[in-house]
Structures are given as structure tokens and as C-alpha cells.
């Protein structure tokens, strides 16, 4: 019976591949041993890597083998690269810094904005909160710029400039970035050596630069390692308009999405630094889909006015004996919805006199009369 099952499964897979696309192509890529043959000089930020030293070459080969072994991960690195690396590379060039530093982001986060570590590092460059704030990032419960490709890259440029000025080499700057400035300085003084390749450092830091170098080698010539991606295989580059949004109070992201003629998820994906469902009070520079900035401000102001008026009509004043569950039952809405609408902490009690926003049938997209919207847009244009 088992062999019959395997035969049927094989027939099914063959039929599926023929019905839903081209048959899968067999993989052809170099052997791991041949992939280790590095015949040209290797540099990091114009600093030579002494691969003629056996121990140095071994450390490099280990990281290269580990990267090549996880081929699905490398494919994702490459596919994401067109989305983010051009922006990082441009910012590095404007700052007069080597493009080699962009490979740090690949090694740290695999180019994922929400990547996190057990120690609390977050984002493209894996900043800890204290370090991120030190270099100018906004990090709180509402906004976390470690997840913003532009803000975090600006911070990492300031960080690397400082570390390079402190230690005098990019290899040591990268080591300090990984293990901490004070820890590296202490090791240099104790060991009487300022050569990264000859320092005994925490094992993660000893591997860190070589992991970055393995990324550089693969990205410099993907085909040599068997990663043959066509243009359509890469994920599309980020295309966006940059706009200024003024919020006189906490404002639902869905309002911004409607003003940009898009969806909540699109705004969140373009602006991963925004935490939760509301943009906090204040002025914010955010990204919206390319082309959506035309008449955005007029649509936004009109939607905001409708939303504010609607809010006033839906205020419920908490009475003695009320709790969130009883209020949810009374209005036929979910407890979670009330928490979202009012940005409540479910672990904290409510009190008589508190005001809650309740959408009895759930919030609906705000509809603006077309003529009214066009008139508003025309008025804004004339101003």
C-alpha cells in the first residue's frame, strides 16, 4: 500500500507542476569546496583582510560556508536587496563612507525592519534602545525609529563615524559596534594590541566581521555561488511619496490611509516605525504610496474634520459599576475593539467619569461627498 501511495503522490505532484506553472528546474550550483577559493585580494572599507594567514582564512571560510549552507536565507537577502540597499548605499555615499558598511545591515537583520534579538536589539541595524537614542532615534511606545530604514541608517552613520574616529580603523569600529565601545577599548588596553584580527574578543565579535565579509562576497558575485536571479526575481524597490502630517491629537492610521487612497497595511508597511493603530499628536514625516501626495492634504483635512465630529457623537461616560466587559456587552461590540478605539491598558481599571469612544456598529470608512471634496481641494490649491 505504501508504494502505491508514493506513486500516486508523485503523479499528483507532476500534474500540479504542469497545471500551475513551469516544472521545477533542477538546481545547479558550485560545490562548497570550490566556493571557498578566493583568488583576489579582499578588503573591508578599503582595509585589507590578511587572508594569507591560515587562521584568518579559516575564520572567513567558516562564515562563508555557514552562509552558503543556508541557501533559502541568502535568496531572501538578495531578493530584498533591491528594496532597501539602494537607499542605504546612497546615504553612505553622501556621508563619504564605504558601501561595504551596508552589508552590516544584511548580516544583522537580513533586511527585516521588525527583526529583534533576545537582548532587545531591534530593526535593520539591531540598535539597542540606549544606543539608538544616543544617536538621535525616537524610541518609545508609539514610535520606534529603529525600524525606519532612513532614520536608522542616519543613526548608524553617526555611530560608525564616532567609532572610526575613536579606534582609527573600520574593522575595530565594526567590532565596537557589536560588543560595545567600552568593552573593546578595555580589551585593547589589556591585550596591548589594536589589530582586530589578532585580538581575543567575545566569540560573537570574533565572527562578526567575517559574517559581514561572507555577505559581501556573495553580493559581489551571486552567480559565482549559484544564485542566478533574474530581474523579475527581485522584490520591487520602495516607491513612495514623502509627506508631512500634522496631528492635533492621536489620529487613526486608517484616516491617513484613506487620505492616501490606500489601506491601513500599506501605511504600516511603509512606516514600520509607527507602533499600534494611531499616529501620536505632533508633526510627522511619513511615507505614502507613490503618486498619493497629490491633493493628500485636502483629503486628510476633510477626513479629519468628519472623524472629529463623529467622535464627539460617540462618547460614553463611564458610570459607577461599569467595567469594560459590561460596556462591551451593552453596546454589542467586542472588548478588544473598545481597547483599540481608546488605546487603553487592559490591566488598568476605568473610573466613573472617564470618557470612552464607542462605535456601536464598528467604525466605517468615512465617506466624503465628492463635490465637497473637490471644492476643498480647489480651495486649498487657490490658497
Key structural traits:
383 residues, mainly alpha, Lysozyme, two-stranded antiparallel sheet, 16 helices
Strand content: 5-15%
Rg computed from alpha carbons, rounded to a whole number of angstroms: 27 Å
**Biggest sheet details:** 2 strands, antiparallel
The CATH class of the largest domain turns out to be Mainly Alpha
Report strand order across the widest sheet: 1-2
Class derived from helix and strand content: mainly alpha
Number of contiguous helices: 16
| Overall shape | elongated
In CATH, the architecture of the largest domain is Orthogonal Bundle
Count of DSSP E strands?
A: 8
Distance linking N and C termini = 80 Å
Domain unit count: 2
Low-confidence region ranges: 5-9, 11-19, 370-383
Question: Layout of helices and strands, plus pairs?
Answer:
Blueprint (H helix, E strand, L loop, with lengths): L1 H18 L12 H4 L7 E2 L2 E2 L5 H16 L1 H24 L7 H8 L19 H6 L14 H19 L2 H10 L1 H11 L11 H18 L19 E8 L3 E2 H7 L4 H7 L7 E2 L2 E8 L6 H17 L2 E3 L6 H8 L3 H8 L12 E3 L12 H13 L1
Antiparallel strand pairs: 1-2, 3-6, 4-5, 7-8
Helix pairs in contact: 3-10, 4-7, 5-10, 7-8, 8-9, 8-10, 11-12, 11-13, 13-16
Q: Can you characterise this structure?
A:
The chain has 383 residues and is mainly alpha-helical. The protein folds into two domains: 38-233, Lysozyme (Orthogonal Bundle), CATH 1.10.530; 239-312, no CATH class. It contains 16 helices and eight strands. It has helices at residues 2-19, 32-35, 54-69, 71-94, 102-109, 129-134, 149-167, 170-179, 181-191, 203-220, 253-259, 264-270, 296-312, 324-331, 335-342, 370-382; strands at 43-44, 47-48, 240-247, 251-252, 278-279, 282-289, 315-317, 355-357. The strands form four sheets. Strands 1-2 form a two-stranded antiparallel ribbon. Strands 3-6 form a two-stranded antiparallel sheet. The protein has a two-stranded antiparallel sheet with strand order 4-5. A hairpin with a 2-residue loop joins strand 1 and strand 2 (47-48). It is elongated, with a radius of gyration of 27 Å. The termini are far apart. The relative contact order is 0.09.
Amino acid at each position: 500500500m505504501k508504494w502505491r501511495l508514493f506513486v500516486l503522490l508523485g503523479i499528483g505532484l507532476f500534474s500540479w507542476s504542469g497545471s500551475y506553472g513551469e516544472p521545477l528546474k533542477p538546481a545547479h550550483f558550485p560545490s562548497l569546496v570550490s566556493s571557498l577559493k578566493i583568488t583576489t585580494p579582499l578588503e573591508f572599507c578599503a582595509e585589507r583582510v590578511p587572508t594569507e594567514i591560515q587562521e584568518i582564512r579559516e575564520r572567513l571560510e567558516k562564515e562563508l560556508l555557514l552562509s552558503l549552507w543556508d541557501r533559502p536565507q541568502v535568496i531572501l537577502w538578495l531578493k530584498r536587496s533591491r528594496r532597501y540597499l539602494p537607499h542605504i548605499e546612497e546615504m553612505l555615499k553622501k556621508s563619504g563612507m564605504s558601501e561595504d558598511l551596508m552589508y552590516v545591515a544584511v548580516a544583522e537583520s537580513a533586511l527585516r525592519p521588525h527583526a529583534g534579538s533576545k537582548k532587545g536589539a531591534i530593526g535593520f541595524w539591531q540598535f539597542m534602545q540606549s544606543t539608538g537614542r544616543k544617536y538621535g532615534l525616537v524610541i518609545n511606545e508609539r514610535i520606534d525609529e529603529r525600524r525606519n530604514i532612513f532614520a536608522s541608517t542616519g543613526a548608524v552613520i553617526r555611530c560608525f563615524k564616532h567609532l572610526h574616529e575613536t579606534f582609527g580603523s573600520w574593522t575595530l569600529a565594526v567590532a565596537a559596534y557589536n560588543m560595545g565601545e567600552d568593552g573593546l577599548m578595555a580589551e585593547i588596553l589589556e591585550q596591548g594590541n589594536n589589530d582586530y584580527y589578532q585580538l581575543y574578543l567575545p566569540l560573537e565579535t570574533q565572527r562578526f566581521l567575517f559574517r559581514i565579509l561572507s555577505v559581501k562576497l556573495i553580493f559581489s558575485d551571486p552567480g559565482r555561488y549559484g544564485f542566478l536571479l533574474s530581474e523579475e526575481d527581485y522584490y520591487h524597490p520602495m516607491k513612495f511619496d514623502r509627506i508631512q502630517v500634522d496631528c492635533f491629537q492621536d489620529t487613526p492610521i486608517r484616516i491617513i490611509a484613506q487620505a492616501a487612497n490606500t489601506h491601513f497595511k500599506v501605511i504600516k508597511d511603509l512606516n514600520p516605525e509607527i507602533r499600534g493603530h494611531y499616529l501620536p499628536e505632533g508633526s510627522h514625516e511619513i511615507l505614502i504610496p507613490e503618486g498619493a501626495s497629490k491633493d493628500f492634504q485636502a483629503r486628510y483635512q476633510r477626513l479629519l474634520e468628519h472623524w472629529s465630529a463623529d467622535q464627539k457623537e460617540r462618547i460614553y461616560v463611564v458610570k459607577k459599576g461599569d467595567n469594560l466587559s459590561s460596556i462591551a456587552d451593552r453596546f454589542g461590540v467586542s472588548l478588544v475593539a473598545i481597547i483599540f478605539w481608546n488605546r487603553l491598558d487592559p490591566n488598568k481599571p476605568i473610573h466613573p467619569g472617564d470618557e470612552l469612544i464607542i462605535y456601536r456598529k464598528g467604525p466605517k470608512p468615512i465617506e466624503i461627498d465628492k463635490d465637497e471634496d473637490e471644492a476643498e481641494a480647489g480651495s486649498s490649491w487657490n490658497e
